[in-house]
Amino acid sequence: MSAGDPETAAVPDRLMFEDFHEGREFAFGDYLVTEAEIRAFAAEFDPQPFHLDEATALSSPLKGLAASGWHTASLGMRMIFDGFLHRSSSQGSPGIDELNWRAPVRAGDRLQMSARVTSARRSRSRPQMGLVGFAFEMTNQTGTCVMTQANTIMFGCRDEGA
Question: What pLDDT digit, counting tens, does each position of 9-66 carry?
Fold first, then answer.
């Protein structure tokens, strides 16, 4: 489901726990990756040579300059935020259950993400909060899956007493 779908338009401005049901899907993002940002992120946070130097990268298992997996995960977080978190009652996440880098992200790749709700339950200890499980998938312009992620996000509830 994208932000412009009729179902989203019918939902109140702020997405609450009750708006996330198992099976609900979102699609978002359209992010163009540049060589400059691949090198800048790597220089600051993951300075392995195959993220910084084309010649070294060509002889690596990546077979060319590629974004750090942590850079890819950070881009995913940005797309998740822009896709729906910014208009939700998100209260953070207790952590990531699974994160897999499936294919290299290269300069010129145009990335998209999809999200599927895998579970939704109200917290027993904090009834004003619900826990929503997500399966995320990031793909490039050819539809190649470059990253998958599974995690729970905590959301405020509209009806705190239910």
Answer: 444 589 999 999 999 999 999 999 999 999 999 999 999 999 999 999 999 999 999 9
Tally of residues, the chain: 162
Q: Which residue has the tokens 């109200």?
A: 122
Q: Residue 42: how many CB atoms within 10 A of its CB?
A: 22
Q: Residue with structure tokens 């400059």?
A: 36
Alpha carbon separation from 40 to 5, 33, 46, 80, 85 (Å, rounded)? 36, 12, 10, 22, 26
Give 6-156's CATH code, choosing from 3.90.580.10, 3.40.50.2000, 3.20.20.70, 3.10.129.10: 3.10.129.10
Separation between Cα atoms, residue 83 and residue 48, nearest integer Å: 31
Q: For residue 75, give the 3-state DSSP assignment.
A: helix
pTM equals: 0.89
